[in-house]
């Protein structure tokens, strides 16, 4: 009986391994009949039955077209299937960690999202799934494969988390281990900083992001000063640049900002490791946290880039860390006014240095106030929340009313409907009535947005926003809703095309998304004398190529995928909920809101938008490693 059950388990794992391997090898394309005809004629040179290719049955045509979606010509897919089968067999043997119904539903959602995301990324539409009955069958097959892969990946992760041991001496006692254990935070910060130094040296003084160039230009008087990028962030960019110029070098002004975000992020990320040690995470987990920040090239690339998101990420990760500390160790916060004051200041900075920061910080504080186990801390946390709101809104009111700095355009928040309108006009422009066109023209240039429409970037459409009055904007939104009812799939595809990178494991953005370049024409236009020390560009090019190669590495390359990190964060949150780790769940409110703002953002698959969530991932993993289903190792 046991042998029969074991044989059944092996056969099941083998079949699932083949399913997953074939799915991963799928080519996202809609097969054409002409290619299928050529494939059908192979080996038919001597056919004497007079085969009528135009009257071939549908099932035979489908079989021939399968070769275009699943070539499987190479030998590698066989060993890959066998390897997956072995891994799945081990995973399915971990019965105590088997996911529940919620994870099964999540796996199905992942399978659907992944295949539809790959379709719209490669083809610009959902044609891979909905083009014809054949494509529907292929699409459903791939969805099943990805769902199976995701389900077993979650199963394996749960098995590893369930076995995690805290405080274990899982590494030999060496001088390095002793040095690291003596002060994990300091040691981690030094190692992370040392790993970033080559990036800073090769790209000295630093790559200036488009937004940062605009912020510096505002402070130099070249552009109008606005609150588009948040005033405090623009001031910080300008002050440091002016200081460098006063000391004799525009390059120095850029480098001073790089130094600031380098020091802040290296220290904060080291504090994540120190917090992991405090939680009792094993030395291996502490090393893994350090390695993630030190060796994953997305961090080195952004540390050398002057962009508001890098510094903000450091501060937001620190805020989330302090929130977790407050929830897990409330007794240390009781009556500590300096700590609560610093926490409030940090919250205000997280609201003022990024426009969507307040939407994550305020709900997180509100949830923490009602979740913290020490009831005497609820009023102090609510006081912190009040201070953050007053500080944030007060600063914005002061800059707008007193300093007369205009707020950003409302159009920045309308990327989703404007992209939908542009795609609708592009695909169904002949169906737009005169009244609908008149209403749209008050807000956007109809003909121009159809021509400038880019599925993954709304900048081509936003540039034609006319800053209309409330009445015209209301009439436009009514027309927008009316057009939605006519062609809802067009709207859904528009939103999906502009957001799928945040929940699909695929890569649709170019490597320059890491901003490893300077725009010399913009610099000259603003009379900014900023240039790389490496004038040949060979070293910089080598680093960019190394970054590109890292993205393609098996497994570890996934740590550069926004979709992978988003799903991993969600699964870890589900694990913590399964462990009834109620004290830390408010952390996920802020992370979830940031993820939603990424989906509504003007750029698809933009790592700098997602950077705050990516920075919190090691902290979330440490929390998941500490909590187990039966008992938490932390006294809360």
List the helices and strands and how they pair.
Layout: H1 2-24, H2 33-41, H3 58-69, H4 77-92, H5 101-123, H6 127-130, H7 133-163, H8 175-182, H9 184-202, E1 207-208, H10 210-219, H11 231-246, H12 250-279, H13 283-295, H14 297-303, E2 305-306, H15 308-328, H16 337-352, H17 357-371, H18 378-402, H19 415-428, H20 434-441, H21 446-452, H22 459-462, H23 470-486, H24 488-497, H25 520-525, H26 538-551, H27 562-578, H28 586-599, H29 607-626
Parallel strand pairs: 1-2
Helix pairs in contact: 1-4, 1-7, 2-3, 5-7, 8-9, 9-12, 9-13, 9-14, 10-11, 11-12, 12-13, 12-15, 12-29, 13-29, 15-16, 15-29, 16-17, 16-18, 17-18, 17-28, 19-21, 19-24, 23-24, 27-29, 28-29
Describe, in short, the structure shown.
The chain is mainly α. The chain has helices at about 1-25, 35-40, 60-70, 75-90, 100-125, 125-130, 135-165, 175-180, 185-200, 210-220, 230-245, 250-280, 285-295, 295-305, 310-330, 335-350, 355-370, 380-400, 415-430, 435-440, 445-450, 460, 470-485, 490-495, 520-525, 540-550, 560-580, 585-600, 605-625, and strands at about 205-210, 305.
């Amino acid at each position: 009986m046991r042998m029969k059950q074991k044989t059944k388990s092996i056969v099941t794992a083998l079949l699932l391994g083949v399913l997953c391997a074939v799915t991963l090898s799928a080519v996202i394309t809609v097969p054409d009949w002409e290619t299928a005809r050529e494939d059908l004629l192979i080996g038919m040179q001597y056919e004497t039955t007079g085969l009528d290719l135009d009257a071939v049955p549908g099932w035979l045509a489908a079989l021939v077209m399968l070769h275009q979606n699943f070539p499987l010509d190479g030998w590698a897919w066989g060993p890959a299937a066998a390897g997956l089968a072995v891994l799945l067999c081990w995973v399915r043997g971990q019965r105590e960690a088997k996911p529940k119904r919620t994870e099964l539903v999540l796996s199905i959602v992942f399978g659907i999202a992944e295949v539809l995301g790959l379709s719209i990324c490669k083809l610009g539409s959902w044609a891979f799934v909905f083009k014809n009955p054949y494509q529907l069958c292929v699409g459903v097959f791939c969805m099943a494969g990805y769902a199976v892969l995701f389900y077993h990946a979650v199963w394996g992760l749960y098995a590893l988390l369930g076995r995690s041991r805290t405080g274990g001496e899982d590494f030999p006692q060496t001088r390095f281990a002793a040095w690291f254990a003596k002060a994990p935070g300091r040691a981690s910060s030094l190692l992370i900083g040392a790993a970033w130094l080559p990036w800073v040296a090769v790209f000295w003084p630093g790559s200036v992001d488009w937004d940062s160039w605009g912020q510096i230009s505002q402070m130099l008087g070249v552009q109008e000063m606005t609150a588009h990028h948040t005033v405090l962030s623009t001031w910080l960019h300008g002050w440091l640049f002016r200081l460098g110029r006063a000391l004799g070098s525009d390059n120095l002004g850029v480098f001073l900002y790089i130094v600031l975000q380098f020091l802040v992020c290296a220290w904060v990320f080291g504090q994540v490791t120190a917090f992991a040690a405090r939680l009792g995470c094993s030395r291996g987990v502490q090393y893994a946290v350090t390695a993630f920040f030190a060796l994953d090239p997305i961090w080195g690339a952004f540390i050398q880039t002057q962009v508001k998101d890098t510094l903000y990420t450091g501060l937001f990760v620190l805020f989330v860390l302090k929130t977790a500390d407050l929830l897990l160790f409330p007794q240390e916060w009781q009556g500590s006014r300096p700590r609560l004051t610093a926490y409030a200041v940090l919250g205000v900075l997280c609201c003022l240095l990024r426009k969507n920061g307040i939407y994550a910080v305020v709900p997180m504080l509100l949830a923490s106030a009602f979740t913290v186990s020490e009831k005497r801390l609820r009023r102090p946390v609510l006081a912190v929340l009040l201070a953050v709101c007053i500080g944030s809104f007060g600063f914005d009111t002061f800059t707008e009313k007193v300093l007369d700095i205009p707020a950003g355009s409302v159009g920045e928040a309308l990327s989703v409907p404007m992209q939908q309108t542009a795609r609708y006009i592009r695909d169904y422009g002949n169906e737009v009535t005169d009244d609908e066109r008149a209403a749209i023209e008050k807000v956007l240039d109809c003909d121009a947005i159809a021509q400038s429409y880019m599925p993954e970037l709304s900048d081509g459409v936003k540039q034609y926003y006319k800053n209309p009055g409330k009445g015209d904007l209301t009439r436009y939104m009514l027309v927008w809703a009316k057009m939605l009812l006519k062609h809802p799939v067009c709207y859904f595809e528009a939103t999906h095309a502009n957001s799928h990178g945040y929940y699909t494991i695929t890569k649709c953005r170019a490597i320059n998304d890491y901003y490893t370049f300077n725009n010399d024409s913009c610099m000259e236009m603003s009379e900014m004398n900023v240039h790389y020390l490496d004038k040949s560009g060979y070293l910089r090019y080598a680093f960019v190529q190394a970054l590109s190669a890292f993205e393609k590495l098996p497994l570890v390359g996934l740590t550069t995928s926004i979709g992978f990190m988003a799903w991993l964060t969600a699964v870890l949150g589900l694990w913590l909920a399964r462990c009834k780790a109620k004290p830390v769940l408010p952390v996920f409110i802020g992370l979830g809101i940031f993820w939603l703002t990424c989906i509504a953002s003007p750029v698809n698959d933009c790592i700098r938008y997602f950077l705050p969530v990516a920075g919190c991932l090691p902290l979330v993993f440490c929390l998941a490693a500490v909590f187990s289903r039966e008992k938490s190792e932390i006294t809360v």
